[in-house]
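S.,

Sequence below, as promised.
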Amino acid sequence: MTRRVSLVDLPVTFARPLRLFTYVIGHSQLLLRGEQDHEQGRTTTLEVVFKNVSALSVLDHYPSLTIRLASGEEEEELREAVPTPRHDSRVFVLGKRLLGGFVIAGDVFWGESSAPETYSSFLLPEYTLPQFEPDRPSPSAPQTIYAPYPHHG
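The prediction came back faster than expected:
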């Protein structure tokens, strides 16, 4: 199956719970996952992955999540607290305020799949992530992966 990437503008809001699933230290990748809940009408697994992460402050669970780019004022506030170089990175704010969390990363991608959440990640298939049933085959990848338009400035 050919996977396509669809570019969208931020902010993006996910009106469903997401939780911190894993952080791949060697490749600086953060994975958040929204679980299926058939009783609530959520028949897909949602994954959000941040790549080339240089700094982060995240909660372990979000009842719903909005990802947006930081304002100039928020970037300055973070520059004082987190003086890491930001050559090709952007500051993504998780929620309405910085207190909800932030990720300084090169990119963010998200997608949904109908594969059960017991499978490994479909956005990070090259890594062996925690699996509840390791004998199961890998999940099918989503047909569309979403990414924000690049903003320079």
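The chain has a mean pLDDT of 85.

Coffee later?
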